Structure formats: structure tokens, C-alpha cells
Amino acid sequence: MLKISELAGRIGLSAHTIRFYEKHGLIEASERSESGYRLYNAADVNRAEFVKTARNIGFSLEDIAQLLSIRLDRSSHSCQEVTDITRNKLHEVNRKMAELEAMQKVLSRLLDNCDGGLENATHCSILEVLDNGGLATTGRVN
Amino acid sequence: MLKISELAGRIGLSAHTIRFYEKHGLIEASERSESGYRLYNAADVNRAEFVKTARNIGFSLEDIAQLLSIRLDRSSHSCQEVTDITRNKLHEVNRKMAELEAMQKVLSRLLDNCDGGLENATHCSILEVLDNGGLATTGRVN
DNA sequence: GTTGACCTTAGAGTTGTCTCTAAGCTTATA
DNA sequence: TATAAGCTTAGAGACAACTCTAAGGTCAAC
Ligand SMILES: [Zn+2]
Ligand SMILES: [Zn+2]
Ligand SMILES: [Zn+2]
Ligand SMILES: [Zn+2]
């Protein structure tokens, strides 16, 4: 039976975070000591590790709550439910990647066009682009 | 001279958001009507458009505040200051992209390994991975 | 028997970017 | 002149995922 900071050290989360996860139903201590300390048994530790792994992958706490409820009673849930959660997450990741890629392109082009020198910014091409509503889609750099 | 909702319609932000930006020093109305309505002149509109363009690109409001202070007095700032802000943003974007790419890979591999069928999740490979601390780095899919 | 590390709780604060509400004044239209 | 649309303010609320605080109880070591 581990105390909270032992669990924390083991899975790499702070005790604060573990209590926070408990409040949100993700982690639980199946026992308490006489003085009220949380005590985690092997199953609790496994569950906490599941949560940590899922969080590392990038699942939201709400996703994790759903995955846990499936894990708790695998036989009354389908693989499809699991893949739905996973696929939704993948789509979300893909959307964000597309956004970031667009930003990356624009930022790179802005940097290509400004020398970044110490002279004053009176004719800075980056400021000009921002003043003119963005990169022209016609006309290209280089 | 535009009123706030006219400016809002013109640049594609809500009046709420414009007031919020004003509170944070990004947009300003250089005049007020007798009754206290905000009135935006051409320079105010240009500034608001600058803000909108920068936000579209993905700059944070704090970045934009810095860019604005350079824009306000270009001759006492250097191109380098502008490229520093831009480069920092690009690095941040690159970091986030790398994180998302890692997530993308893991999620894709999880989906490759589970058929997503309607049978029950007793032996679901995704849950197994989460139970076992993540994808093994040795051993590969396919 | 006292220090100091660890535990408890409820609840507030953080970050960033809005988003909305309430209560009341102004302006335009019919 | 009545009604509706639009404007004002201060301030609250939303979201995710923590992060920390206060005020106090517990436990091991010296
Ligand atoms: Zn299956
Ligand atoms: Zn420049
Ligand atoms: Zn330059
Ligand atoms: Zn499965």
C-alpha cells in the first residue's frame, strides 16, 4: 500500500495532481489509513499508471474518464468505442497540425523577408505585411 | 469615424472582443462621441486590422502588444526586435508541431492495431497498450 | 518532545482568449 | 412616441489542466 507521495514518485505526477485527478474520478485510493491518509493498492497503481500513460499520449482527462469506464468493464464495451475515442483524438490532432503548419509557413516566410538587422524598423517587411493584411497570396517570396 | 460594431463588421471581430482588446491595450478609439460611444478613425482602423492580421497568423496578444509598440515608433526599434518575436513564435510552433506529430504517430499505431469491431473489448489492443505503459519501442507494428 | 516531512480539506488562483450579463443610456425608425 | 437596436460599464463566467494556499492533523527520527 503506497501513500500518495509514493504513488506520485512512482508514476511521475505530483500529489496535488493525483488529488486533482481523484476529484475528477480518474484515480482512486481504495483504502484510507486510520488517520485518513490515502492508501493505494496494486490495482490502484495500475489504474493510475493507465491514466498517466493515456495522458502522456495526449488524451484529455475526459477521454481518459471514458477509457477508464471501458477498462473497468471491458466485456460490456466494444473495441469500436475505444477506436472512436482514439480516432476523434487523432482527428483533433490532425486539425491542430494543419493550423500549426499554416502558421509555420507564414512565420517562415516572414523571416525570409526580413534581415533581422539592427537598423531601424522603418521599412521592416514584417511590419509591412501585418499592415497590409497578411502575405499576398499572389506574388511570392524569392 | 466608425462605431464599434461597424469596426467589428469591417475587421471580423465582435464588439465584445474589440473592447476586450482595448482593455489590453491592443486597439483604441481615438475619439468618443458626446454620448460616450467609441469612434474609430482611419488610423484606428489600420491598427485594428494590424491586430487582426497578427492574430490570424497566430501571434499571442502579448506578442501583438510588442509588435504594436514597435509599429508605433518604428524608428526607435530594430528589425531584430521584430524577427526575435517572430522567431520565438516559430520555435513555439515547431515545438508544438513536434508534440502533435508524436501524438499522431502513437494514435495511428494504436488504431492500426485495433480493428474497432463491435465485439467486446476484453482483449482490446489499445487498452492493453495503455495498461502496459505505452507502445513498446522495440517490436513493431506490421 | 520537538523538529520537520508528510498528510488532510476546501477552496482560490493561474493562463489565455474570450464571452456574456446586468442595468442603464442613446439613436434610429415607424 | 414607442419600440428596437445599439452603445456604455464593471465584473462574472467559461474552458483545461493544473497549482497553490491556509490551517491544521500525523508520524518518524533524534
Ligand atoms: Zn477489436
Ligand atoms: Zn524587418
Ligand atoms: Zn531589416
Ligand atoms: Zn480494440
Structure description:
- The structure is a homodimer of 142-residue chains.
- Chain A has 142 residues and is an all-alpha fold.
- Chain A has two domains: 4-59, Multidrug-efflux Transporter Regulator, Chain: A, Domain 2 (Orthogonal Bundle), CATH 1.10.1660; 78-142, Multidrug-efflux Transporter Regulator, Chain: A, Domain 2.
- In chain A, 61% of the residues lie in helices and 3% in strands.
- Chain A is built from six helices and two strands, in the order ααββαααα.
- The first copy, chain A, has helices spanning 4-11, 15-23, 42-57, 61-72, 79-113, 125-131, and strands at residues 31-32, 38-39.
- Chain A has a two-stranded antiparallel ribbon with strand order 1-2.
- In chain A, β1 and β2 form a beta hairpin.
- The radius of gyration of chain A is 25 Å and the shape is elongated.
- The model of chain A has no long low-confidence stretch (mean pLDDT 94).
- Chain A binds a DNA duplex (30 and 30 nucleotides) through α2.
Question: What is the topology?
Answer:
The structure is a homodimer of 142-residue chains.
Chain A: H1 4-11, H2 15-23, E1 31-32, E2 38-39, H3 42-57, H4 61-72, H5 79-113, H6 125-131
Antiparallel strand pairs in A: 1-2
Bound molecules: zinc ion (ZN) (4 copies).
The structure holds a DNA duplex (30 and 30 nucleotides).
